[in-house]
Fold this protein.
Amino acid sequence: MADTKYTPAPLEPPPSYESSARPSSPSPNQAVAKPPSQRAPLPLDLPFLVSIRRRKIILASASPRRRQLLAQIGLTNLLVIPSTVPEAFPKSLSPFEYVLQTATQKAMTVYSAQIDSPDGEPALVIAADTVVVSPGGQILEKPRSEAEHVAMLKALRDAVSHKVYTAVVVMAPLASARDPGYALESTVEETTVRFDRDVSDDVILSYVRTREGTDKAGGYGIQGIGAILVDKIDGSFDNVVGLPLRPTLNLIEKVLRADDDLADEFAEADEEE
């Protein structure tokens, strides 16, 4: 079911540089004031983001982590519509192809279902898929039992390092009638995660019993308690969480500029004639 809740931009202004520079220590006769409540920063003031912020933006994923990451760049008014098509691509595909095909299928399925919606076509559809891959190239699923969960994390620790791949696909309808009627851009990001070899079996079992990693491929959440398992990473942190923000921002800008790019192409073609 679609989730239409959103968090509006903060009503109070963010802290000023002047107020931040004021001395924090009170004078001897001054009562100690309560610390001010933390204010959220203002959203990014990028023209292409501002143009869609109040329009229909669909996140084709039920992941709360992806929703939180998109909120960081000011996309809070999201309609959450996960794809219902089974992810049935063969694990014999390379991790790169597997995540890309899965994310593309999610985006296309939701876009096709929503393009003629009574509520209007979406301004943007964002889909993603993340997989954890063992050093041997095995795509790891979510753990199906406590025993499998423990074994999975022990294997990742003993292997020391493994890969995390996230594919992001962004779609937007074109104003022109040019086939296929939409712009689609995609990327696949790779991050190497190194577990701490000294993490004990007791720590792994204790982590498994928090149940934090039960709904995550690879069995851990780096943004939560699962950070205790990790020594370091090489690449994007938010890629491991489930949505690389910088590449996603680039894709959004590309698809939203697709109509302008097409207009430029037509203008150049007319000039050549």
